[in-house]
């Protein structure tokens, strides 16, 4: 081997030592100094390089989140590696409906977490139940126990208001270690009150595919459930990637035009409901893509003019009692489909003529978007996904992660796999 080759190998090794690793994902926890997918001895080495001036400072290098990078950060990383850290600082992905994009917002969380007010609708409580931490839940929202899949696990937990209107007096009386709320709402006023009481507010969205992996992994680190969350993430990746691979080569002519209706009749909410968020990744074209904001009133004549090939209607167990886990038959969902088909002039819409008016409950999405998207992909591309069985995927998730058998009606009509 010549001298030049030896020098190149040596240089390559040097660069590997000083550059952040190229990982499949970045673990968004402070202490991950080299910005890879783990916190380990490599981070201490990289941090030392920052302190010595040979490595570039990174977003997550300030392990103890005190505003400076020094040897105390190395000590924090060592504690994280040993599993004896007294706190972790994670990245939250905050995006209120009025915000144009996600804001990466750090929050320092004291450990261990013994009690949690799970106030992010039903998604937060469900995630905690899946992780085996239902016993840590000390409060929920008033309607959370309506959710059949987790009712038995949270039925004795006190309610402290609505999802976006917490009874702060009750929360302060309970005094949980942590309040878990949605990342899609501005809780700045509540945060001030909680901070003053020594209660940490963590905001997470487990129902959004774009942040699901980061949110779930961060919670797993906070609760010491790293292996369990990786099982959840692997499940989502497997099924979402299958859909992604099959629709990626479609041109616009091969994609059905879709009208997605929110919970209320003739209302459309951009990006804030799973029904609209699922269209593009499932290989469809949203006829109202240009509309922004929530609860847009839709002109029924415009729907006729745009002539969608598929109509998707969103509902929930709160909107439609005979839907979701507690549903005993398809009667109420079928009646709603018929009601949509009978709207004045809609008999001329392709989706109605072809029997492609479909209804789905948000409970099918919850903290597992892969299930929701499997139902939608099957409706949008029945031939492309003829072997896909959304019901089987749904059954597998409930049994694997909640230990319960599937029952109820989450989507109508169902297309059989072949």
Question: How would you describe what is shown here?
Answer:
By secondary structure, the protein is α/β, with parallel strands linked by helices. It has three domains: 1-85, Dockerin domain (Type 1 dockerin domain, Orthogonal Bundle); 86-224, 3-Layer(aba) Sandwich (Rossmann fold), CATH 3.40.50.1980; 232-412, Rossmann fold. It is built from 15 helices and 15 strands. It has helices spanning 3-18, 41-52, 71-82, 123-130, 151-154, 168-174, 188-196, 209-223, 226-247, 274-277, 300-306, 331-341, 350-353, 369-380, 390-402, and strands at 87-94, 103-110, 116-118, 137-140, 161-162, 165-166, 178-181, 200-203, 257-261, 267-268, 285-286, 296-297, 310-315, 357-361, 411-412. It has a five-stranded mixed β-sheet with strand order 11-9-13-14-15, sandwiched between helices. A four-stranded parallel β-sheet has the order 4-3-7-8, sandwiched between helices. β7 (178-181), α7 and β8 form a beta-alpha-beta unit. α8 runs antiparallel to α9 (226-247) and α9 packs parallel to α14 (369-380). The model is unreliable at 1-22 (pLDDT under 50).
Gross CATH architecture of the largest domain: 3-Layer(aba) Sandwich
Instruction: Please give the domain count.
Output: 3
Helix content estimate: 25-40%
Arithmetic mean pLDDT? 92
Shape: globular
Q: What count of helical segments does DSSP give?
A: 15
In the CATH hierarchy, the third-tier topology of the largest domain is known as: Rossmann fold
Termini separation (Å)? 59 Å
- The CATH class of the largest domain turns out to be Alpha Beta
Poorly predicted residue ranges: 1-22
Largest sheet: 5 strands, mixed
The spatial strand order of the largest sheet comes to 11-9-13-14-15
Order of helices and strands: HHHEEEHEHEEHEHEHHEEHEEHEHHEHHE
Number of strands: 15
The radius of gyration is 24 Å
Beta content comes to 5-15%
CATH superfamily membership of the largest domain: Nitrogenase molybdenum iron protein domain
């Amino acid at each position: 081997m010549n001298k030049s080759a030896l020098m190149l190998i040596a240089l390559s090794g040097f660069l590997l030592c000083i550059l952040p690793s190229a990982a499949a994902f970045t673990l968004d926890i402070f202490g991950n100094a080299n910005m890879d997918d783990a916190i380990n001895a490599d981070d201490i080495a990289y941090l030392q390089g920052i302190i010595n001036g040979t490595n570039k400072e990174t977003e997550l290098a300030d392990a103890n989140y005190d505003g400076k990078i020094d040897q105390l950060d190395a000590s924090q990383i060592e504690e994280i590696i040993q599993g004896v850290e007294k706190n972790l600082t994670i990245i939250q992905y905050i995006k209120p409906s009025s915000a144009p994009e996600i804001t990466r917002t750090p929050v320092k969380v004291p450990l261990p977490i013994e009690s949690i007010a799970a106030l992010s609708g039903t998604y937060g409580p469900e995630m905690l139940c899946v992780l085996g931490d239902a016993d840590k839940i000390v409060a929920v929202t008033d309607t959370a126990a309506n959710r059949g899949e987790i009712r038995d696990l949270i039925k004795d937990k006190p309610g402290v208001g609505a999802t976006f209107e917490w009874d702060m007096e009750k929360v302060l009386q309970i005094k949980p270690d942590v309040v878990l709320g949605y990342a899609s709402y501005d809780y700045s006023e509540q945060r001030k009150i909680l901070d003053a009481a020594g209660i940490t507010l963590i905001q997470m969205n487990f129902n959004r595919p774009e942040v699901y992996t980061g949110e779930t992994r961060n919670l797993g680190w906070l609760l010491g459930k790293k292996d369990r969350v990786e099982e959840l993430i692997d499940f989502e990746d497997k099924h979402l990637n299958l859909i992604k691979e099959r629709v990626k080569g479609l041109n616009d002519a091969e994609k059905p035009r879709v009208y997605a209706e929110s919970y209320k009749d003739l209302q459309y909410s951009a990006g804030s409901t799973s029904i609209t968020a699922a269209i593009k990744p499932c290989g469809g074209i949203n006829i109202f893509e240009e509309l922004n904001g929530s609860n847009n009133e839709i002109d029924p004549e415009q729907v006729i003019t745009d002539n969608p090939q598929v109509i998707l209607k969103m509902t929930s167990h709160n909107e439609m009692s005979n839907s979701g886990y507690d549903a005993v038959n398809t009667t109420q969902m079928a009646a709603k489909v018929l009601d949509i088909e009978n709207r004045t002039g809609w008999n001329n819409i392709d989706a109605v003529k072809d029997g492609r008016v479909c209804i789905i409950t948000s409970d099918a999405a919850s903290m597992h978007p892969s299930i929701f998207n499997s139902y939608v992909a099957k409706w949008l591309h029945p031939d492309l996904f003829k072997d896909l069985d959304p019901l089987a995927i749904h059954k597998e998730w409930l049994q694997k992660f909640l230990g319960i058998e599937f029952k109820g009606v989450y989507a109508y009509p169902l297309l059989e796999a072949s």
